[in-house]
Amino acid sequence: MLSEESSRQALSSAQIVLVLGGARSGKSAFAERLASRSGKSVAYIATATAGDEDMHERIKRHQAARPAGWYTIEEPLDLVHALRQGSAHGDVVLLDCMTLWLSNWLCMQRDEHEWEQVSPLQMNRYINGAVAEIEAVLRVVAKLDQRKSLIIVTNEVGLGTVPAYALGRLYRDALGRVNQRLASAATRVYLMVAGLGVDIKRLHDEASL
Fold it and tell me: Please, are residues 151 and 94 in contact by the beta-carbon 8 Å criterion?
């Protein structure tokens, strides 16, 4: 059950919908359907960067599939600025995706060749830094009109084996913490499996003995 404080916040600020799942689970298509079916104006925040030919082609496919009337913001790092800009142009803001944003953010924190020397204390600092970025986003959401909606796409990467390298473990742990924070603030949380979305927040209940 939501706490009384969380319930009041949900009623007084914009709605957050979190869509998460594994690779090729249908997350983006599901989120885009939610936005389209709302009948409201949509602003799309794209966090991807064309680092190689495959990603370049993937970005082009996403751009071509997007409705012409959507306002697109390409912003790999500054989510607060992108959200403010998006909410000024759309009643629904679709952020796709948190997974790539975290990758971009981590790459800005440290040179890649140094990651193997990162200590557990430093890892915690990076994780807390990523969560602090999300807290800044949520503060912006809390000030938006309650008729606005933010749809966030993210990956669930914690169901496989433990990564054998330090950056992989840091990324997995940081995204897990980011996803938990977003899920706690979200009104609805859809878990995607084979293109099907299940609202796991509605099924959630506080654990008890």
Answer: yes
